[in-house]
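Notebook entry, structure prediction.
Reason for the run: the old model in the group folder had no record of what sequence produced it. Starting over properly, with the input documented here first.
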Amino acid sequence: MKTALSAKDLCVVYDDFYALDHVAIEVSEGESFGLVGESGSGKSTLLRAIAGLAPVVDGTITVAGETLSGAGRSKSFYRNVQMVFQDPYGSLHPRQTIDRLLLEPLAIHGIADSETKITRALDEVGLGNGFRFRYPHQLSGGQRQRVAIARALIVEPQVLLLDEPTSALDASVQAEVLNLLEQVRRDRKLTFLMVSHDLGVVHHMCERLAVMRGGKVVETIAAEALVKREFSADYTRQLLVASEGFRRS
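New structure, fully documented this time:
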């Protein structure tokens, strides 16, 4: 299986503190890969490092065959790799209509036929054209996150970085958004790197996962290993016990 995204010996340092300490992961094309761990474990920092939003001091990141250095990212990278953030309200400009929010990435990347692409993107996330000229504050949390997903998909990326994409939503809405993401991945053959504190979500969405603690990867396991209790690190066992949303069925 071809590798879509990898990090080797990756280090991120803030004021002499190693937020990432020689982290290594490898994600195959079309795979959904999870990052789990307690708050401060480094999982969101890893996503931000890949996106060029964190100060990488050592190690390499490779995406779609392109090796990245520091915080610099090419225009093609930002088309191939898109990020969906935890807080949909914070990631959408409050004074721009949904139409303008979706038009902006198309304009940045010089993508033509914006009318067709905006319509398709809204349909794909279950909103439709009736939402085009609304503002973010006129939408529910789940609808705002659907817009954020549509904005990520509209430039036709290969990889989605998902930072707790449903944790700010109500439980019933969480399931709808997760099912949407799963459908989109299948339809577009996307690669996901997904951060979540909820092992139940990761088990549902991902084939494999890396368990992180203190800026390091403790172990990398198949998602099914959570159900079968086939893991070696005691910390993974502690996480499993602490995760209230995890279900064995």
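Summary: The domain at 3-242 is CATH 3.40.50.300 (Rossmann fold).
The old model has been moved to the deprecated folder.
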